[in-house]
């Protein structure tokens, strides 16, 4: 009787704790069902993870969030004090059928589990603390016929334990094969099987973080062989490198690396990775002002992209000065929104025209303005440099660089993200001159390498060379060119907007373009600008 009273009390407390949020987090659940009481624990009677740190395992904590999945719905369970007792957690749900679970909930975007497979993401950027990214999954097994079930969690990652010198503030691990990204877990009964074919990152990093106690960094990685592994240790403005041999990594195992004696003597931060407002970056040194070396954070993906390579790496296409894409879909051709997006400031909107002067942001009308005879066909309400003929009022505004409110990188990603500069101080050109570019016939784009790793700065090569992609700093996919509603040459050339207007022809702006033959068009030449109405992709940067 006492056991029943305890379970009932926890169930009631849980029901009250979650009744206010179940409506928000529980979707497509059909008719109400009987309340199920779920008891969750880890294999081997552990708590949050079975991996031991000096003989201890992390306890469940108030605020931990678990995602519970059925075949048609999900529930995010945020633990309260009443849910935790004796190395176990207990909570209530109305989800029916076989249940699956992921901890932490942030590791998955699934909202249902229709086939018994759970996909989750091992983050490329972690905080280095123990168990911060040790992702665990579970499948329910009915305890008896009283509507009570057990969830037994199992770790799905391997963990690298990296001991460094006291003044190291970050580490990153780069491997030949990919070790972060999407993993699929499937269950044979309650046993777990992992498939890592969707991994798309060959590094994991904890950089620029507060150093953990004892300068021990923990990085969770996908099980498998790391291949040739390189470990960077970072001080505030220095880094040291050490090569490590291959390791066959298994889930639920900690692998120790003692790097406390690595010499930190390289003042070039090129290659240091991190995350800014949820988006990954790589720091690269170049003469961005044309004269002096400085550092810039380059995003690893385009705005709207979801992977580093492949069709989903292209991202969204923008007109210059617009902060949202103007189309709903792209399948060979663009389908433009029938109504003008709210952020577009112009007189007209013609969905059938697509990327055209009719729809270009800040276009007032098509035809001569009212005060200047023989003016260009496009006149604008903003960004007209010193060319009066391009201003709708006949008086230019002198503006040649996008303001933050018109910068798609700033508006979409926030923080200090912005579009790169073009023209006489082109940050794209500085990047190219400081690095080595190699076209890849498989991934259809250019891999960018530090010159001291893979070749001479300011050069490129076509075809697939003898270069290890794990050494690459960045990848620029061949995003193609768009005009009106058509997409051209995707997989053959790339076109990326800068934030800089062509002051001589303010209906154009500077871009960074390339093709697979190595024709890099970054020179300070008006011929390498493009009409503002063109649809192009954006690769953000940050100082």
Would you kindly provide a brief summary of this structure?
With 543 residues, this protein is mostly beta strands.
Question: Which structural class do the helices and strands define?
Answer: mainly beta
The tally of helices reads 4
Number of DSSP E strands: 37
Percent helix among the residues?
under 10%
Low-confidence runs: 1-33, 366-375
**Main sheet, how many strands, which sense, barrel?**
8 strands, mixed
- The N- and C-terminal alpha carbons lie at a distance of 65 Å
Give a written overview of the molecule:
The structure is a single chain. This protein has 543 residues and is mainly beta. Helix content is 8%, strand content 35%. It contains 4 helices and 37 strands. Strands 3-2-6-8-9-1-5-4 form an 8-stranded mixed β-sheet. It is globular and about 80 Å long.
Q: What key phrases describe this protein's structure?
A:
mainly beta; 37 strands; 8% helix; 8-stranded mixed beta sheet; 4-stranded antiparallel beta sheet; 35% strand
